[in-house]
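Can anyone check this?
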Amino acid sequence: MEVEDIKVTPRSNPSQRIIALGIVCAFLYLASNIVITLLLAVLLAYFLDPVIGILERIHIPRSLGALLVLLAVTAMVGGLGYMVADRADQFLAGWPRYSTLLRGATTALDRKLSTVEKEVAAISPAPEKGRAPARVTEEPPPVRDWLFRGVGSLYSFLLVATFVPFLVFFMLAAKRRIWKATMGLFPDEHQPRVQAALDQVSTMLVSFVAGNALVAIILMLASWAFFLLIHLDYPFIAGSVSGVLAMVPYVGAVLAWIPPFLIGMAQWRTVGPYIGVAAVLTVLHIIGVNVLMPAIVGRRVHLNALSVTMALLFWGWLWGAIGLILAIPITATIKVVCDHTAGWEPVGRWLGA
């Protein structure tokens, strides 16, 4: 009797895929601090890698070049932080004037809300006799809850600030060894496809980070010039913060209003300047997101509007504000992987349709 060899290929059913997806989402949520730190380090490493390549061409060792570039970036960030802190000190020096205006506006708003509540109570049906209206007392959150929440946020910030520079240095200094070891994880017949996918991811991430930085600088300079033109106090700090906030998808147009509105409370007595500032900043946000971003970054990312919106919703829900920043590069990387993985090409085509 002939013995026939039967080759069994394991296949995952839909239930197993859903369970695996749930495990991945749970891991991304529970280990968000670690994953976010790694992703930020990867983005920064890809952004700085071309500079290291230029230093290598002038015969500077890669490790030394990575150290010099990181020191230069740290000095630039420190200098910008000093400039912002200096302007912030000037703003804080005049804070009593702003706090008085804010207190007056809050008092007026409370009075109007109280008037509306009394009018609503007057037209609402009277409670039944013999039955006292239920009183709802809101207890303030315990102090320890606020304390633990603040400690958690501080821990996340310190984790990123402490580990990202070291991760970036090691990624840049040992790039060739890491690249070779990564290629060794795949069979020889799959390495050309993996090589093409990694090259495409590298190009996409560099373009994304550089494009976003360029658009943010343009919006900051435009906001700064506009605030100088209307003689707003502290135009540099207001323009810097508004320009960065304008980069936030969808809600950035409204967030960018906050700095000039707060500063302008001490200068403006009519509603006209507020409307003008809101209109100009909204136009800058629309130009930055809908014109500059597609022209500078969109051609490299190749994502359609629906996939971008869904990515922003999902990663924003999962990680909050940092999720909105990382949503597009994560989704674009997933698209590249799907384009170069057998059986997943339709998903890549859908993301970029």
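Reply from J.R.: I decoded it. Residues 17-110+151-185 form one domain.
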